[in-house]
Design brief:
Blueprint lengths: L1 E4 L5 H11 L4 E4 L2 H13 L7 E3 L2 H9 L19 E2 L2 E2 L37 E3 L5 H14 L3 H13 L3 E3 L7 H6 L4 H30 L2 H7 L7 H10 L24 H28 L7 H6 L4 H21 L15
Parallel strand pairs: 1-2, 1-3, 6-7
Antiparallel strand pairs: 4-5
Length: 349
């Protein structure tokens, strides 16, 4: 069972579900800002991998309007309160949005006690919040304040205008992203780079470094032929030079009458010679022939290789020419837009 969700710390729930039902669940965390685009893209491509979706109410309502989800009545819904039942979408919990502050920068006596305290001008350029233009949880939070906290719509609007006047810094989401929290807590670009970005990229950097080392060591033939005579070294040739620098101290001593030992192949001579011929044809003759063939044959002529092979035999070639013309006409009927057919009705010469 594949589970797409925007909430975190859901692993204990998945483990309890597996123990109770015996069905293994796979949890994929998708941020609220990317939830709709991710699910709709997979759904429209016919490759939606999720079996169960969890997201804020606004996101679920949009997905339902698009036909992604269908109505489902869980057994536990019988005891749900009426406010938790939203036309086939069920609210299984309450998401709390709280205020957190930096204890090193804010005195405990100055901590806001009410939402209205956030409109105080002393908090100008000191507030960080998720962008309400794209973050569904923040939108739900603002609507919840209007419906459940403020007595009148005017009070709610005064709060929203006062909050906007303090020019809060908008971030994408309060999720597992590490660079934004570092920027929120005034980490600075350099501190974020060395304490967040580079440690996260360490596996990728090490993999790229190892790949470069391997590619450098593998590149030996060309640098040894072109570079070593001119004393231009790369890593592989430098290592080779270092390892062979003392080779002149070692000499193989043999008698004057030494000659290589000849091994008689006997009955294996013919099979080995046949294998040698086959390998020579496959590795040398055939590649050269294909190269010559492709350099002389026009495009879009699938039968010309037969024409080239049988070219010395005039009678066979003439009869084959008629067959090739018939084939080209049939091909033109199947693909009338192909105006590059190079076969004509003229007799081959």
């Amino acid at each position: 069972m594949s589970f797409y969700a925007s909430i975190t710390a859901v692993e204990p729930i998945m483990e309890a579900f597996q123990q109770k039902t015996g069905v293994k669940g796979e949890y994929t965390r998708i941020s609220t800002t990317r939830f709709i685009s991710t699910v709709l893209t997979e759904f429209q491509a016919g490759k939606l991998a999720a079996d169960v979706l969890q997201a804020p109410l606004l996101v679920m309502e949009i997905l339902k309007d698009q036909g992604v989800i269908v109505d489902y009545t869980p057994m536990a819904a019988a005891v749900y309160p009426d406010w938790a039942k939203r036309d086939g979408v069920y609210l299984f919990g309450i998401e709390y949005v709280g205020l957190i502050y930096n204890t090193e920068l804010v005195d405990p006596a100055d901590v806001p006690k009410r939402y209205e305290d956030l409109t105080d001008p002393k908090w100008k350029n000191q507030i960080v919040m998720a962008n309400p233009e794209s973050h569904a949880t923040t939108i739900s939070w603002l609507i919840g304040l209007k419906e459940n906290i403020f007595a009148t719509e005017k009070e709610w609007w005064d709060f929203v205008k006062g909050l906007a006047a303090n020019e809060p810094m908008f971030v994408a989401s309060f999720d597992v992203s590490l660079e934004e929290p570092s920027r929120v807590f005034r980490g600075g670009p350099l501190k974020t780079l060395f304490r967040i970005t580079l440690p996260v990229l360490r596996p990728a950097i090490m993999a790229a470094f190892i790949l470069c080392i391997i590619r450098g060591l593998a590149s030996f033939a060309v640098p040894s032929v072109l570079g070593m005579p001119g004393r231009i070294y790369v890593m592989s040739t430098y290592i080779y030079r270092y390892l062979t620098s003392s080779s002149e101290r070692f000499v193989t001593i043999s008698s004057r009458g030494f000659k290589p030992t000849i091994i008689e192949l006997k009955k294996a001579r013919v099979p080995l010679f046949a294998v040698l011929i086959v390998l020579s044809v496959l590795l040398i003759v055939l590649p050269v022939f294909v190269l010559l063939y492709t350099s002389f044959v026009p495009r879009n002529c699938n039968w010309c290789w037969i024409y080239v092979v049988l070219c010395p035999y005039a009678s066979v070639r003439d009869n084959l020419g008629s067959f090739i013309r018939i084939h080209c006409h049939l091909s033109a009927l199947r693909n009338p837009s192909d105006d590059e057919c190079l076969c004509t009705d003229s007799q081959p010469s």
